[in-house]
Write a structure and sequence with these properties.
Largest sheet of chain A: none
Structural class of chain A: mainly alpha
Keywords (chain A): Endoplasmic reticulum, Membrane, Transmembrane, Transmembrane helix
Radius of gyration of chain A: 26 Å
Oligomer: heterodimer
Main location (chain A): endoplasmic reticulum
Shape of chain A: elongated
Structural class of chain B: mainly alpha
Strand content of chain B: under 5%
Number of strands of chain A: 0
Order of helices and strands of chain A: HHHH
Organism (chain A): Linum trigynum
Membrane topology (chain A): Multi-pass membrane protein
Distance between the termini of chain A: 36 Å
Protein name (chain A): Dolichol-phosphate mannosyltransferase subunit 3
Strand content of chain A: under 5%
Number of helices of chain B: 2
């Protein structure tokens, strides 16, 4: 996924969290891409219609990449069946304990 | 269930990969192919390569804003009652 992991482990001195550096990177990347695109428009190597297609193609490919990451993450998600059973046991135990103490635990 | 999750994930990845390859072929490779080649009949004219994504994007944005607006209205109604 397009993780923002760099945000969390770049500053580990206890300094306050600064989200601005990541924004600057994104903006500079966008500026570089648009400069390249405007340069392509001016140079007229490729016919005009195809140059107009380039940003749309980039956006569509970005959307496809996001969808692909979601699908891959879904496929690799670990379900931990043993932990699920243990969790159910814990829940039943806690419910029994609270019911003894008189707390209303609600329906299941 | 684990199997249903994996099936949905596989379906999503396949859909995204097919859309990506079709669109890449359409926009990048096809302009360089001669006009008489038989492959051209499998692809719509190039204007549709702009119309369809823009239309889909506009539809997505409007659906999102409708959803956000309806949620905001519902929460305001609940706040007024309570």
């Amino acid at each position: 996924m397009l993780t923002f992991g760099k945000l969390t482990n770049s500053q580990d001195k206890g300094a306050p969290f600064s989200p601005m550096k990541h924004i600057f990177k994104i903006i500079s990347l966008l500026a570089a891409i648009s400069a390249f695109w405007v340069g392509l428009l001016q140079a007229s190597i490729i016919p005009r219609t195809h140059t107009w297609l380039l940003p749309i193609y980039l956006v569509v490919s970005l959307g496809c990449y996001g969808l692909l990451m979601v699908g891959v993450g879904l496929m690799q998600f670990p379900t931990c069946p043993q932990e699920a059973v243990l969790l159910q046991q814990d829940i039943a135990e806690a419910k029994g304990f609270l019911k003894d103490k008189g707390v209303d635990v609600g329906s299941d | 269930m684990e199997l249903a999750d994996r099936a949905v994930g596989l379906l999503l990845s396949l859909i995204s990969l097919s859309i990506f390859t079709y669109f890449t072929f359409w926009v990048i490779i096809l302009p360089f192919v001669d006009n008489g080649h038989f492959v051209h009949q499998y692809f719509l004219p190039l204007e549709y390569a702009i119309i369809i994504p823009v239309f889909a994007g506009v539809a997505l944005l409007s659906l999102l804003s409708l959803f956000v607006g309806s949620v905001m209205l519902k929460s305001r109604k609940k706040n007024k009652k309570a």
